[in-house]
Amino acid sequence: MRHLSATLSRVKPSPTVAMSGRALELQAEGRDVIGLAAGEPDFDTPPHVRAAGVAAIEAGKTRYTAVDGIPELKRAIVEKFRRENELDYAVSQISVGTGGKQVLYNALMATLDPGDEVVIPAPYWVSYPDMVRLAGAEPVIVEAPAEAGFKITPQQLRAAITDRTKWLMFNSPSNPTGAAYSESEIRALTDVLLEFPDVWILSDDIYEHLTYDGFRFTTPAQVEPRLKDRTLVVNGVSKAYAMTGWRIGYAAGPEPLIAAMRKIQSQSTSNPCSISQWAAVEALNGPQDFLDGWRAAFRRRRDLVVARLNAVDGIDCATPEGAFYVYPSIAGLIGRRTPAGKVIATDEDFAMALLEEGGVAVVFGAAFGLSPAFRVSYACSDEMLEDACARIGRFCAGLG
Fold first, then answer.
1. What is the pTM of this model?
2. Where is the Aminotransferase class I/classII large domain (predicted)?
3. Distance CA 366, CA 346 (A)
């Protein structure tokens, strides 16, 4: 269409949404498809959180609220950062949006101009580069291969920074790899950032509560307090509290940045859902003991998937520290041919053939900036994962 914006040509649709959509189409046609593409916990939202949402409806808390969150939720977020991250913020330094994605988008739109650069480690969440492009800036991709634990080094970070760099996008534990930076690894990066006073840190901590094997989560502003005034810490209730559909994300950062993000939001969605905000208050303030059981289930599923995939010839799967994803390499399968005659030239070829011929939906590695690989979400039942891994094994064994 002649009237579409030129900016639109700079971005592409989300590959994770596309793969999940194709899986749903095949299921609607009667095909037996197991979906491992979506990053969504299979647990129900905890009962006390659901009850808080119902109570908000019954109490008539269904009207417009302040643009970027009710005071009660902002106070709960302030207390969460103090309690869990040793970070002190004022209510005026908190922003609440319609999911973490909107919070990230608001921050980038409020700060980026054409010619600016944003350093993004790869593999990355699929939306990071396209958000940067939508804001008119350029993503600078720094590859972190499996041999490096999917983590960038201080040397790589220093080399990527130029006089045009505005942000480092930092995500730990990571989507898509589940890799998590230790406190010492974060400190090595923050030491570099101290050398560049104009570079800010956008820390996406959405998988904070999903770490395993005694791993201790820390966030950059906690590790290096001197960077707090140029760090935006982003989090939300979707992953830790199984509230993906409630759409509540939040951030803490310098007051001028928060005010700029509020201005963006005031002219887009305005306030997040009032009912979801009250449920999020209960999620942050209420009991947290259920998380231990959820983490145990995710750890068991992680170990199951890693073991099953590593038993498949041509697949090499690292054991991640957190989140609910694994990111196996398929370097050993490139160039082979499916029973239907399709050559596996790329990881996208692999993912599409696995879906069409093997009945398993995954996301190809090119979508995350590092190939050849694919992402598996193990946020589903043990039985489904056993079946899916068996199908992947049979599909790979049938490659010529």
1. 0.95
2. 32-392
3. 8
